[in-house]
Amino acid sequence: MHAFNYKEIRTPVFEETALFARSIGELTDIVGKEMYTFQDRSETSLTLKPEMTASVIRAYIQHNLGELQPLTKVYYLSPMFRQERPQAGRLRQFHQFGAEAIGGNSAIIDAENIALAVAIYKRVGVKDYSVKINSVGCEKCRPAYKEKLKSYLNNVFEKLSSESRNRFEQNPLRILDSKDETDKALTKDAPLIKDNLCQECTSHFNELQSALTRLHVGYSVDGTIVRGLDYYTKTAFEIVSGDLGSQDALAGGGRYDLLTEQLGGKQTPAVGFAAGIERLLIVMEKQGIDTHDPVHPQVFLASADEHGKQWAIQKSLELRQAGIACEIDLLGRSLKAQMREADRQHATVVIVVGEQELKQEQVTLKQMSSGEQLTVKTVDLTSTLQKLLSS
Ligand code: AMP
Question: What is the pTM of this model?
Answer without folding.
Answer: 0.88
